[in-house]
From TrEMBL:
Residues 112-265 form the Fido domain. It holds the Pfam family Fic. ATP binds at E67, H201, D205, G206, N207, G208, R209, I210, G211, R212, Y243, Y244. This is Fic family protein. PROSITE patterns: FIDO (PS51459). It comes from Parageobacillus thermoglucosidasius. Keywords: ATP-binding, Nucleotide-binding. PANTHER family: FIDO DOMAIN-CONTAINING PROTEIN, FIDO DOMAIN-CONTAINING PROTEIN DDB_G0283145. One of its GO terms (molecular function) is ATP binding. The active site is at H201.
Length: 364
């Protein structure tokens, strides 16, 4: 039987629909894990901004993977420093990163709003990627539908609201984000907000990615995290069939409890992974700084190591631009670090690319 366009509930949801007591254990655990992650970040030997970039690029890779792209973190980082043109999968991941950065910067002057969603969406579908002909930066004016690849509207697993209702639903979502009028914890709210955005499906393409960018932006905007660097696409990608099923259950079964439970568990898993990553990266940073200082006798070596932790794949020019040191000085330092196998290169004579695998191995 063909589904009809779905008619979502407006937010806030009634308490009988979402009862926090039904997932209180998961909520406490998720909040505890986030606090541990934030504390670890604040006390890190590395400035949180250093890891922001590689972690955001990893998120870009994982979030676009959910949509079916075949791309690795190394390929995305290589495309940034090499002159060759990125293929469409890589460009999709780079667009995601740019949309995320733009969203983060825009929050300084505008709230999370329709304007922000459209701004990020336009960037997401730029540079001739898949979907670039599907109204970038504009809400849809035609009916869309979801389902397995190749399905028709007759065999769709979900048909979002009719296009003429999109503006009303998005206005309601925007109002809820900025003035929720309920007593739920922020982690519960972000689970509801993400699900509602995916249910409205306001764009013709890119809804999943914009909906996942919304998670760290919301938590950052509400002061739950200090930097918008908490991403759960890695965990969602691992359990993507569960992710889609529980989202659909909020629609057709009205089961919000199971969805919120799953979402909170994803937050806990990711926060614990992040804590382990920061512990390992802190240890690596101390060891590499000590090792590099014994190889290169200059106070500038700390600046070079700092950049390596922000850009584990780089060229001498990138390093020179970011440190302010001359390319000649940088090449001399990099040759010494390569001789001692701290970094590796592709061996090219011109436009040589360097790889800092000790960090890449931890990020992948």
């Amino acid at each position: 039987m063909r589904l009809k366009p779905f008619v979502p509930l407006m937010l806030p949801l009634k308490e009988r629909i979402v009862n926090q007591l039904e997932f209180i254990r998961e909520l406490i655990e998720a909040n505890k894990s986030i606090v541990e992650y934030q504390t670890m970040l604040r006390n890190s030997k590395l400035h949180p901004q250093f890891l922001l970039r590689p972690v955001m690029l990893k998120e870009a890779v994982q979030s676009t993977k959910i949509e079916g792209t075949q791309v690795t973190l190394d390929e995305v980082m290589e495309a940034e420093v090499q002159t060759k043109k990125a293929n469409k999968d890589i460009q999709e991941a780079l667009n995601y990163y740019e949309a995320l950065m733009e969203g983060m910067n825009a929050l300084k002057s505008i709230p999370i709003s329709t304007r922000l969603f459209k701004l990020m969406h336009k960037i997401l579908l730029s540079n001739n990627v898949r979907g670039s002909n599907r109204s970038p930066g504009e809400f849809r004016r035609i009916q869309n539908f979801l389902g397995p690849e190749g399905c028709t509207i007759e065999t769709a697993t979900y048909i979002p609201p009719e296009p003429q209702l999109v503006n009303d639903y998005m206005s309601n979502l925007e109002k809820y984000i900025n003035d929720p009028q309920d007593d739920y914890d922020e982690l519960v709210r972000v689970a509801i907000i993400h699900a509602q955005f995916e249910t409205i499906h306001p764009f013709l393409d890119g809804n999943g990615r914009i909906g996942r960018i919304l998670i760290p932006l919301y938590l950052y905007n509400k002061g739950v995290i200090d930097y918008p660097n908490f991403f759960i696409s890695d965990v969602l990608e691992r359990d993507k069939h569960k992710y889609y099923r529980y989202l659909n259950d909020t629609r057709y079964k009205g089961d919000w409890t199971q969805w919120i439970k799953f979402f909170l568990e994803c937050i806990s898993i990711q926060a614990k992974k992040n804590v382990r990553l920061i512990e390992e990266v802190n240890k690596l940073y101390e060891e590499e700084l000590e090792r590099a200082s014994s190889i290169v006798n200059s106070s500038n070596i700390r600046t070079v190591i700092d950049v390596m932790f922000q850009r584990p794949i780089f060229t001498a020019k990138t390093m020179s631009d970011l440190t302010g040191l001359s390319e000649g000085t940088i090449r001399r330092y990099l040759n010494k670090l390569e001789e001692q196998r701290i970094i590796f290169s592709d061996g090219r004579i011109r436009f040589k690319t360097y790889y800092y695998y000790n960090l890449l191995d931890k990020l992948r």
